Amino acid sequence: MKKEDITGMIVYVLILAVAVIFGLTVLQEYSRAANMTTGEFVGFVLLAIFVGIVFNAIIFELAHVAGAKVGRYNILSVNVLGFCFYKVDNKTKFKFSSYDGLTGETKINPIPNAKKEPNPTPYLLFGALFYIIQLIAILFLFSYFTATKDKTLTKVAYFLLIVVTLGGLILVYNLMPFKLDSINDGYRLTMTTNKKNIIAFNELLRVENSIATGDTSIEVKTFDQITNFTADLNLNKVYLLLEDKKYEEAEELLNIILSGKTELSPKTYIRARAQKIYINIVTKTLEEAKKFYEEEVDVQERREISKDVSMASIRTYILMAGLLDKSRSETVLTLNKVLKAYKHTPKQRKKIEMELYNEALNMVIKAHPTWELEGYLLVDTSVQ
Fold first, then answer.
1. Which pLDDT tens digit goes with each residue over 48-69?
2. Phi-psi label, residue 338: left if phi above 0, alpha if psi -120 to 50, beta otherwise
3. Rounded Cα–Cα distance for residues 79 and 95 (Å)
4. What does each C-alpha distance from 82 to 34, 59, 97, 103, 363 come to in angstroms?
5. Domain limits of the chain?
């Protein structure tokens, strides 16, 4: 289990613990005072949770929109619990869509030719600001309604208390300064604490949006000072170079990324490392590739690449297992992860990842025609 998975599990357990304690103390005490039956209490809590999730999801995305505007960004789309609103030719359209976040996602792009460098801090922090305003308003209403001793108003007060407590739990998750199962604002804040990372963050938004809209001719800025942000930005350039078969230039850029190993997360490093190994295998003779593999790829790196569920690591490891180690079982074991990896590949990288993966698998098929691996090839119709 990877570090971010363990961290995410701990965060979820803490949030659940707070929710349970709140339910068993504050809410149960209220239910007894209000003489609620078990059915009434469960229905009351479930309705409040449903309203709280929807309400807070809307509030947090409105906060992202407001923060993005203050920070000098254009809004590309707003997704609240799968309900996605986006713009095409200045017209707002709607679709159901997945999102990278706990309750929603607002995609942004730097305003072109802005007088000042767009600043992501308001976009990342306005969720906390909007929640504080919500908290103050609801606590005021709670105090006022409960002071009246009116049963209906008291019931509304505790309903609102559940809503604001749920919002607080969502905010805690969103501001955790770790990379969890979705990219949260707290993690992004830790990555944009210096000016170079802010520039890289904005460049990454610009490039990803251009590639996502089909503009692969965009000039991608690269960085010599390596962080997770600048490494990911450099990887966009690597993909464009691989698409054009400019392997030497791609390897040079990967060397720059790998030189900043101490600044990179283990996952970012091993995926960049896999890219370099892939290039060396597909561009060298089998003897040269095997020599490179034995001399430069240690056992720990081989193990990490084999465990990593990403297209970069999978296409590299099937070459390692199939061509260099000649292990059908290891190759098939890795191929069984490809659909999961492809599903979680960023949309702008799916097309080139499919091409690179199929190229690697065809090399293994050619070397071992009796292994019957043709069914693992990805087809064009799976590109979304």
1. 999 999 999 999 999 999 999 9
2. alpha
3. 9
4. 36, 15, 5, 8, 40
5. 3-188, 265-382
